[in-house]
Amino acid sequence: MCQQFRDMSKLKRPRILKRRGSKVVPVATPTHHAKDWGEKCVDGFQVITQIGEGTYGQVYKARDKNTNQLVALKKVRLENEKEGFPITAVREIKILRQLNHKNIVNLREIVTDKQDALDFRKDKGSFYLVFEYMDHDLMGLLESKMVDFTESHNASIMRQLLDGLAYCHRKNFLHRDIKCSNILMNNKGEVKLGDFGLARLWSAEDRQRPYTNKVITLWYRPPELLLGEERYGPAVDVWSMGCILGELFLKHPVFQTR
To answer: pTM of the full predicted structure?
Structure first.
């Protein structure tokens, strides 16, 4: 696949709006690999270009000055956060640190734009989540209309996605935001599931626990959530995967409607 296809499409798609009144909490100290987390400064990376806009900040393509490896820096803005990290960012970090699978995007570390933690008392800065770099997202590839996926390609993509999702479900996490823009690919044909900002821990033993049904972008949202169901499980992610499968063949969303 050509490098040019990694550019994100400008076509606007439905988004899940942040719930008002969301609280923010400070980030807890990591319980493992502490020396690798939070000690580096973003100055150790050479920012190449902005490649997207995340839930809570911009996403940049960058190069690690020490290893020369490409990474994706997901910025967490703190300017408007009075109490600390946005809760969505905290949840994504907490969940991704518990997941280790070849088909789930790898969160490598967290860095800051401050040389010292005490600097945050003087001037609020930003944190950056450092992810492995992936060349494309599936939405950009499909909408570019310059990549022709064959049945074999579609089978490979779906196999990798379902392997990653099955692992996620075995770990008792629901993703709750599966869509083409959250499916990442590289030029080696590797596919990974990304953006766990809406993911939640799920328990099969507690099926009566209610969850919000205002999750999953509209075109990928299953009927039970559209009808107001608040007690659901892994099946909601499987529906979204089915929508992805149809989209791979049709080259447009299956349920593209208001």
So the answer is: 0.80
Angle of helix 151-170 versus helix 235-250 axis, rounded to 10: 170
Q: What is the pLDDT of residue 38?
A: 52
Show which of 132, 159, 185 is a domain's final residue.
Answer: 132
- Counting residues of the chain whose pLDDT is more than 70, the rounded percentage is 78
Q: What CATH number does residue 202 fall under?
A: 1.10.510.10
Q: Is residue 16 part of a domain?
A: yes
237 in active site: no
- Torsions phi, psi of 240, nearest 5? -60, -40
Partners of 131 in beta bridges: 72, 107
255 domain residue, yes or no: no
Strand order in the sheet with 70-77: 45-53, 58-64, 70-77, 126-132, 107-112
Catalytic residue of the set 135, 137, 177, 237: 177
Q: What is the DSSP code (8-state) at residue 256?
A: -
Q: What pLDDT digit, counting tens, does each position of 152-196 carry?
A: 999 999 999 999 999 999 999 999 999 999 999 999 999 999 999
